Amino acid sequence: MQATEVPAIVGAYLFEPTPYADERGFFCRTFDADVVRSVGLDPGTFIQDSVSRSARGVLRGLHLRSGAGEAKLVRCSYGRIFDVVVDLRTDSPTYRNRAFFELSDATQATLYIPAGCAHGFQALTETADTSYRIDRPHDPTEDVTIAFDDPELAIPWPLPVTSMSQRDREAPSLAQVLKHKES
Predict the structure, then answer these.
(1) How many whole angstroms separate alpha carbon 93 and alpha carbon 77?
(2) Is there a catalytic annotation at residue 63?
(3) Per-residue pLDDT tens digits of the chain, which is 183 residues long
(4) Choice among 63, 78, 138, 180 that is catalytic
């Protein structure tokens, strides 16, 4: 497994496993505590695993947590997704930068998203299973959502949106979220 820094987002990493393929399919390690430690992260901080299943065109996000935030490892275990990270850490040299990734079952790559960054994705295949490893228990009172189509972010979503949650549909703009955060 190899860890690569994400240049657009300080503190974000892409973990790419080495799959072993043969006539049966493939096998690969999707989490390696030693590799996580090698980039200065504590693998023991990840305490909750979750998975979502989405149909083609479904959009989830942009989500982040208030308070101390939430760091997470994200991987598309089945299908393909267009994954988005937006750095909203005001003290970060990459503040307001965006980074885009295609995560898929073919690579089993895992993206580390630091606390304070917004995250969202769109399913590119008929079925896309996305796995999350999170460093804090979920607290719905800390959920923050930003409009996926905010012109300030200009995210190039690859497909028309077929479905999203009501919360995501009604999400405020980035400017509104930042204004509320400052008050």
Answers:
(1) 31
(2) yes
(3) 999 999 999 999 999 998 888 899 889 899 999 999 999 999 999 999 999 999 999 999 999 999 889 999 999 999 999 999 999 999 999 999 999 999 999 999 999 999 999 999 999 999 999 999 999 998 999 999 999 999 999 999 999 999 999 999 999 999 999 988 765
(4) 63
Structure token digits, residue 26: 């493939």
d(CA 30, CA 38): 15
Confirm whether 138 is a catalytic residue: no
The number of CA neighbours under 13 Å toward the Cβ of 66 is 13
Select which of 20, 95, 132, 138 is catalytic: 132
Three-state SS for the chain is CEEEECCCCCCCEEEECCCEEECCEEECCCCCHHHHHHCCCCHHHCCEEEEEEEECCEEEEEEEECCCCCCEEEEEEECEEEEEEEECCCCCCCCCCEEEEEEECCCCCEEEECCCEEEEEEECCCEEEEEEEECCCCCHHHEEECCCCCCCCCCCCCCCCCECCHHHHCCCCHHHHHHHHHC
